[in-house]
User: Fold this.
Amino acid sequence: MRKKIAIFLMLILILLFFTGCYDSKEIDDYAYITLMGIDKGVSDRIRLTLQVPEFSKASGEGGGSDGGQNEEEKIDKENFTVDATSVLSAIANVNANIPKILNFMHLKAIVVSEDMAKSGELGEIVAPLVRYRQIRRNVNVIICKGKAQEFVKSARPYLGGLVTETLEDLIERSRYTGFYTDVSIGHLSDEIKSTYSQLLAIYGAINKGENFVEDGPLYEGGYKIPSDFYAGDVPRKGGQEIELLGTAVFDGDRMVGTLTGFEAQMLHLVWGDLRRSVFTIPDPEEPEQVIPLEIKEFEKPIIKVDTKTDKPHIEVKLSMEGDITAIPSRINYEHYMKKRTIEDVFEKYLEEGIQRTFKKGQSLKVDVFQFGTQAVRNFWTIPEWEEYNWLEKITQATLSVEVDFTVRRTGKLTESQPIRSTEGEE
Amino acid sequence: MQKEGNFGYREAISMFVIAMTIKFFFSSPAAASKLVGTALWYMILISGLTAAFLFMFQYLLLKRFPNLSIMEIADNVLGKFFGSVLSLLCCVFFIFTASIDMREFVEVMKIFVLPESPPSFIMIIFSLSVVALSFMGLETIARFSKFIVYVLGAGFLAVILLSVSNFKIYRIFPILGYGLDRTIFTGIVRSSFFGTITVIGVFAASLHGPREIKRIGFSSILISGIVTSVSALSFVLTFPYTTAQELLSPMYAMASMVDLGGFLQRVEPIFLFLWNFGTFVEVTVLFYAAVMIYCHVFRISDKKPVILPMAILMYGMSLIPRSLNEVVNLWVHLLRQWGWIPYFLPSIFLLIVSKFRKKKGDINNA
Assistant:
């Protein structure tokens, strides 16, 4: 009898292990959203665009062109746009019209239109998404020029692969180029409430090659700071349509301005997280020529913030080293006596770049360099710190910058011989 | 004398360390962060020191009455009636704490992992597991804890180490949080965080005398204090104090943010493992202590018939809060803020009365 009862109880217990079968869902019951775009709506408060790429092939290829299928048709099928009151109501609307359940577990980035960001609604519409279970805190946030709807539609995988991979790689590039600041929705939620710093986000745009002038008079305008552009303004043609360059700057949850790619590089240099990057400076002796330098940090930046008065003073000391990668003028800068000229020019170049970026930040009332993270060390308690109100004090702050740059190597050449022709030496 | 099984100090320390530290993985750090801000990590050390100080009175009491449990000491000092009343109050407190902790666990699980499962379903499965382990007895609970503590320790270390890339030193400033006075006061009041150690008084008869109780008690508080303080420090370094106060489970959020080079991410299942087994041990320890007290008061020698009804009671109590907010903002807050009274004061009270009435245990028992 005991044995029979035991078997009976075991059978009942086994049922508990099969509870998952009752409302089980297979992996292909879901439609995985990889990109979400948020614009201001026309027929309702927000316009939400969701990209759901087709992961059809065993090789993992998805979101790209698929043989005979019409590309336009495929893009339309993979991108839903809906106007709704909130993100969740928009999702409910889309869910009602597709045979799969939308899932955000693989969401890679949230794209917010500049209009939406400037309206100060980020804190009401985007930041609350961290509360949603399926959205991870490390989903990236991109602020885009123009419509987020178009940006999402234009995001396609580059040279095969997945769109998520393409975006991940693009965002990862900022560690090497420093052209924008990586931000996730978790950081967004932290920064808009922070007393230390303000929100900086990736700035993106669609670049279809309109800025690329195919024919015309040849350029004779002299030296231009490379990458001193905003996303969408780079004179290029071909490649990815979406372009990430520059940084959107926020005061609270309202976007108040943008930094160019060059200015974003200045931020990374001061933060000490630019591993290796290329800068191009004008040739000191032949200003129409340029000298590209590959630089890297030699020592961590030293930042001191004096908060004894209401007008804080900030001191930044950078120590860099680098290699000359080309000398088009063939002036013998490799020589140790001449090397100093390049070093001085580059030091001044960075000092001016940092000052310029700092002043731009101050004009926007934003601590773009996040010096608050250093200033807070001068305070013992949170009430003292909050009373000082760093975010307000930054507008009155003064900055002094000192850059120490050393040219370590000069590439595979130790000097440049003149070019000889029938006209003699050049 | 209620002696149950035979286990060493390692098993006991494992059991108490898990039971104490697991609470930090839920809403406690956010609530404490609201009170002390960036000073959270050393506020916990203050709580630990206070708990160790308060536990000393229980140790002195157990030393005065060697090899007797706290219920037997209560009977001895206050007489059977008043002793039973005090014991029953402790029993109610333990079962209530277990039910609230179980509900908090279930609600958090529902938010992060099992959004579609009814809470009662998760609670029934959980309660059945507690019942099954309780049927096996205290020795099994202790040995299971020792078995699982290494796995939990490894998981905990993995989560902390993998989160290092998200740490930012500046977040620890201003170092004194909302003020040193507030930190010390909150640290003292929240000593209840380590209050589970007083359950040792219920299990005292199963341990090898006052010296081992001293060793187990203080070592458990020390280890738990260090583990919790390290968790708090990593939490403070990961989230600015303004955000830290908002998060339901900061440690889970930390685990979900791990992303090393794009290939090592989504490691929160490790954390789920910590959650499940840790809470399971904690709730079982409190539940079993309540069963032991109940059986002592009503002189029931076989605990098995009591376990299932008691589990139903625990399940019922855990349904009292109407929402997660009520659990976190009302009940868990009350338990952390005032829990030190039911955890530590009975022992102090008994020690004073025993001194006053010159009651002492049999020294030969030592």
Remarks:
- Chain A has 15 helices and 16 strands.
- The radius of gyration of chain A is 27 Å.
